[in-house]
Amino acid sequence: MTIDKKTPRGTHGAGNGFAMWLAKVLRRRMIRIHKRSGDTFQGMTLLYLTTVGAKSGIEREIPLAYFQDPEDDNAWLIVASLGGAANNPAWYHNIAANPDRVRIQVNGQGHRVVAEQLEGERRARAWRQITADQQRYADYQEKTDRQIPVLRLTPA
Length: 156
Known about the structure:
Layout: H1 17-36, E1 40-41, E2 44-52, E3 59-65, E4 67-68, E5 76-79, H2 90-97, E6 103-106, E7 109-117, H3 120-133, H4 136-143, E8 150-155
C-alpha cells in the first residue's frame, strides 16, 4: 500500500506546539549535532529524511529515528508519531504528495527510496518490534486516537 493522502487525523493527541516550533527553528543545528554524535538521539539511531513540501515544493530534511526491517536488511522502518499528536507530521503529507521525491541518508549513505505504509499483520509485526525497542512509541499511541502510521522505506 502506498501512502494514503486521506489518512485521518485524530480527534485528540499530545499538544506539542512549542516543541514543534523550537525543533523547526533549530532543525539545521540539531542535524549537525546528531551527525557529530554518531547519528543518535536519546538512544535511537537516526536517518535523515528529505521530502519535497506538499504545498511549498521546497525540499525539507528532518532527522528521524529508524528501525531495521527484520525481513530485509536493505529496508528501514520509520514512524509518523509526531509525539502522539492528533495529526500526522508534515513529512508524512510530503511523502504522500511527492512519493517519487523521497531520499534518506543513513550511515553516511544516500538513497532514493520508495515509502510504503504498512497495514494489517505487517504493521502489527513491525509495531511490536518498534515498541519493544522503544517504549516511547507505545506511549505516543496512548496519547492519540489516530493509528500512528508505520512506513517501510526501500531503495528505489
